[in-house]
Input
Amino acid sequence: MTRDEIRTGVIAALAAVVPELEPGGLDPRVSLRDQLDIDSMDFLNFTIGLHKAFGVEIPETDARQLATLDGCVEYLAARLAARDRPSAA
Output
C-alpha cells in the first residue's frame, strides 16, 4: 500500500468522525485534535476507524504517534510493512 493510499484511508477515517472535514485545509504536521477540535472520544472513534480500514492493532500507548496526518501515515506505513514482511522462521 502506498503512502498516498494510506493518507486517503486516514482522511476517510477522519471524515467518519468529523463530517465537515475539509481535507485540503489540513496541515499534515499540525495536531489533528487542534485543527479539527475533536475530543478524546472522537479520537478513539478515529483510531477504531483506522483499525477497521487497515486491519492493524493500534495500542493506546501508540496514540501519540497518530497526532498529525503525517504521523498517522508514517505509523501505519511502518505497521503495514511489518505485518506484510515475511517472518524468518
Remarks:
- Residues 3-84 form a domain with the Non-ribosomal Peptide Synthetase Peptidyl Carrier Protein; Chain A fold (CATH 1.10.1200.10).
- The radius of gyration is 13 Å.
- The chain has four helices and no strands.
